[in-house]
Amino acid sequence: DGGITQSPKYLFRKEGQNVTLSCEQNLNHDAMYWYRQDPGQGLRLIYYSQIVNDFQKGDIAEGYSVSREKKESFPLTVTSAQKNPTAFYLCASRPTGAVAGSQHFGDGTRLSIL
Amino acid sequence: KNQVEQSPQSLIILEGKNCTLQCNYTVSPFSNLRWYKQDTGRGPVSLTIMTFSENTKSNGRYTATLDADTKQSSLHITASQLSDSASYICVVNLQTGANNLFFGTGTRLTVIP
Questions:
Q1: Are B49 and A107 inside 8 Å of each other by CB?
Q2: B75 and B87 in contact (C-beta within 8 Å)?
Q3: Helix H or strand E encompassing B44
Q4: Closest residue of A to B37, CA-based?
Q5: pLDDT in tens, chain B (113 residues)
Q6: Cα angle vertex A18, ends A13, A20, to 5°?
Q7: Nearest 10 degrees: CA dihedral of B64, B66, B72, B75?
Q8: Which tens digit of pLDDT belongs to each residue from A33-75?
């Protein structure tokens, strides 16, 4: 089945450690997104990419980094500079030429601090 | 300022009852509005999408309404089931820009037997 796969489902980070969240899609979508979800808040955009080898900062990019070397993959690294990384991270993709906002979401990665 | 506000924040209803969730927005220029259902620990799944010219759209027991003049939308759930327990998120899309989605904080619905 086509879809978006995020891994791992749960991730724990130690102090000063960088961790990488995986996002893979087989939907042939050009655009991909990373969101952070905290209790009581709406989804906040971290980074997005509209095409391979290109990405832009979202509203809360500080302490995060991404790469887009392949169309199918958009990994997110949470660096040690992100002082409050505990959250639910959602990856999304959007089909080419679709009605704006037609995003498909993965099932998320929950990141916690040890 | 572009904002999307949802109410109530949480809601508990008996199985079989109906309920209505509200979404008010100040996003402009408006393109479309989408309701998502998000089960605990899962990603959001789209229920309906409505453009400026649409007043009502249904998806099974879910019916969304849109009043573009007052910038209000509602999601009505009929004959609720235990599986309807989830968060419901309203998302409004601007007409322009790559970073053009505005998310509400969601309504947490719990259906009890």
A1: no
A2: no
A3: none
A4: A105
A5: 889 999 999 999 999 999 999 999 998 888 889 999 999 999 999 999 998 888 999 999 999 999 999 999 999 999 999 999 999 999 998 877 666 889 999 999 999 99
A6: 90
A7: 0
A8: 999 999 888 899 999 999 999 999 999 999 999 999 999 999 9
Contacts of B99 in chain A (CB under 8 A): 45, 48, 56, 58-59
Evaluate whether A44 touches A58 at the Cβ level (below 8 Å): yes
Kindly report the nearest CA distance between residue B93 and chain A, in angstroms.
6
- Among B104, B86, B97, smallest CA distance to B12 is for B86
Question: Which position has the token pair 């479309």?
Answer: B32
Structure tokens at A79: 């660096």
How close B57 gets to chain A, by Cα (Å)? 16
Residues of B in contact with A42 (CB under 8 A): 4, 89, 102-106
Residue A66 β-bridge partners:
A76
User: Closest-CA residue in chain A for B42?
Assistant: A107
